[in-house]
Design goal:
11 helices; eight-stranded mixed sheet; 10 strands; about 15% strand; two-stranded parallel ribbon; about 40% helix; single chain; alpha/beta
Length: about 300
């Protein structure tokens, strides 16, 4: 039966995409800390299917620069439209939450802010430095937008010394016009390449969603492009349609296919890869980072 309001009908999810969301004491405490600090997380704003699991494990991906994006990617649940200026004390508040949660590994991302002269790079850098000031041993992963190709903005971020620089290509190049109309595939590859050229010690990372209409060959070509750009960690997940207003799911990928793609990614040269129906770019980020560092260190000794 088709919806009467003109929205696209949601494709029925297969059994492997149904799960119970844990919500114990740790989950509630993480929610309390985030809400008390007036903070945002991509876990909640983007309707991440791993929210319950991550909160219950005492982890979260902080979303800075507000909760409204200046772009309107057709896959994303985050609200879009005009946003106010960045909050000057946001880096300190994020760092305070990291300290109170005693996080040893933290992921910080943002909405895209094309309205800001530096795309928000300065706030990213300040947030990383404030986290290190509060908890010097904490590993910091920054999941950044493309900064409209600004080399200066990227340099600002890299000067803060993140352990991981993450930037998602999201999909194969053929689908950019419909999935990410304000983004440029080659620009994203160049960002990853510049980061690695500037600092060989930084670990670079990217991710894709599957199920938007891409072909198997296109996915493997994108893997190769990422490896050639110096990308070392790859995440691959299932696209889930947030609402009838978003792009429809063209296909649900079975767990076994994700396993085959991860094996192919490792053969092609990635130091670590994770794939599955619920995998997202910051899912079990520390484990992926440690796996990559171990493999990269072993390769350097050979």
């Amino acid at each position: 039966m088709k919806p009467e309001d003109g929205r696209k009908e949601l494709l029925r999810k297969p059994p492997w995409l149904k799960r119970t969301v844990p919500a114990g004491a740790t989950y509630q405490e993480v929610r309390r800390l985030i809400e008390a600090g007036g903070l945002h997380t991509v876990c909640r704003e983007a309707h991440c299917p791993n929210l319950g699991e991550c909160f219950s494990r005492g982890t979260a991906t902080f979303l800075i620069l507000g909760d409204r994006c200046t772009r309107n990617c057709r896959f994303c649940a985050i609200a879009h439209g005009p946003s106010g200026p960045p909050q000057a004390d946001e880096p300190e508040r994020v760092a305070g939450a990291v300290e109170e949660m005693q996080l040893d590994y933290v992921v910080v991302t943002s909405v895209t802010r094309d309205d800001l002269a530096d795309g928000g790079a300065g706030i990213f850098a300040r947030t990383a430095r404030e986290i290190r000031k509060r908890r010097p041993g904490t590993l910091v992963e920054l999941l950044v937008p493309d900064f409209q190709g600004s080399a200066g903005a990227l340099e600002t971020v890299l000067e803060s010394g993140p352990d991981v620089l993450n930037h998602n290509v999201e999909t194969v190049p053929r689908l950019y016009a419909s999935v990410r109309p304000a983004a440029v595939y080659r620009r994203s590859l160049e960002l990853l390449g510049r980061a690695k050229e500037r600092d060989r010690t930084i670990v670079t990372k990217s991710g894709l969603m599957l199920g938007l209409g891409e072909t198997a060959e296109e996915v493997l070509v994108t893997f190769r492009d990422l490896v050639d750009a110096g990308c070392e960690i790859l995440t691959i997940g299932q696209y889930l349609q947030p609402s009838g207003e978003h792009l429809p799911v063209r296909r649900f990928i079975e767990p076994e296919e994700f396993e085959r793609l991860c094996a192919a990614a490792l053969r092609m040269g990635f130091a670590a890869a994770a794939g599955g129906p619920f995998v997202r770019s910051s899912y079990r980020a520390r484990e992926l980072y440690e796996s990559a560092r171990s493999r990269l260190s072993a390769a350097a000794r050979e």
